[in-house]
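[SOLVED] Predicted holo structure with nicotinamide-adenine-dinucleotide

Edit: marking solved, answer below. Original request kept for reference. I posted the sequence and ligand SMILES and asked for the 3D complex as structure tokens.
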Amino acid sequence: MPKKTSRTFNVAVIGAGAIGLDHIRSFRQHPAARVIALAEVSPERGREAAESFGIDTLDTDYRELLQRSDVEVVSIALPNFLHAPVGIEALQAGKHVMIDKPMATNARDAAKLVATAKQHRRQLMVGQNMRFSPEVQTAKHLINQGKLGEVYHAKTCWSRRSGIPRIGSWFTQQQFAGGGCTYDIGVHALDRALFLMGEFDAASVSGQTFSKLGPLGKGDGNWGKGEIDKDAKFDVDDLAVALIKLRSGRTVLLEASWAAHLPEREFFTSQVFGTEAGVMLNPLRLIRPSRTGYVTEEIVPSTPLVNENRMVHFIDVLLGQAEPYVKPTESLAVQKILDGIYRSAATGREVRIK
Ligand SMILES: NC(=O)c1ccc[n+]([C@@H]2O[C@H](COP(=O)([O-])OP(=O)(O)OC[C@H]3O[C@@H](n4cnc5c(N)ncnc54)[C@H](O)[C@@H]3O)[C@@H](O)[C@H]2O)c1
């Protein structure tokens, strides 16, 4: 539970699509947050959201909200290509910024975001919500306690059988999304594994991406509220694999798919391997040898260290009641790896990460 305080923060949410509504709902769970303004280019979607959440100000131009001195926090729930430009403008306008994942559509823009936040002394956080679950926080605690011994490898995966976020939406167009499943769900799987390992900087990446089912109109899912362009070319990846070598020499194997012939509807897991034991999510299991053989012990998640809601946590950070659980430099490092996967796929070579 967030601590009671007299200080409040006025929040503007930009984008009232599928996750924008979640941003609004999530901020409203903190007693010190007030969502006072919303920007949405679709007048209907904007009106519906503003009415149902009782938000006073609605605009189709987000710049109007950035000019308001009473808005202190901006939460960005826009198509990927707008994350960096809108985030940078918001930081320059003196706002604290929460951006949904991926941080940007390339590492250069992600680095600009980090530099602008530093320059203007504002908080910037990427909403890597999958890090905040009690299972992940408990797994992290077990690793920090040394239960795994020396951690040296992770295997992480988010694979869907039929989960393309609507073919023909911005998600499946390179110019708006910047990438496909790698940026959309690979980012969660990768971020989670690196977080658990406690190391973000990679030395090299070898990756491959595929675009096999989406272009055939197969594997469609039902996520997102944006418009569908039936004539738009599906020009992003629907499956990706990568081997990432971290600076320490430790490794991460990543797999992501929006659409693939899988036995299950969806498979989202991360495994971390240490010299004494391994952990696997979800559910959280500790896997270790014992005198009687191998034991797979299901672990009941402990009370989370930080609030499991990323927006509530962000307000806690602004109140000085929590340390940022997702640091901008970590998200930049993740972005560099994701870009490395695309570069490696394009060149057919292992790429060095600077
Ligand atoms: N953290 C998560 O688990 C999670 C889940 C889903 C989506 N996301 C991310 O959230 C972002 C938004 O995804 P979504 O699923 O809500 O997409 P969506 O298509 O449902 O919504 C995007 C909204 O942005 C609006 N928009 C576009 N340009 C705008 C502008 N200039 N000003 C104001 N509004 C504008 C669109 O009209 C639309 O309503 C994406 O970057 C996505 O990767 C994160």
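OP edit: Residues 133-307+335-352 form a domain with the Dihydrodipicolinate Reductase; domain 2 fold (CATH 3.30.360.10). Thanks to everyone who chimed in.
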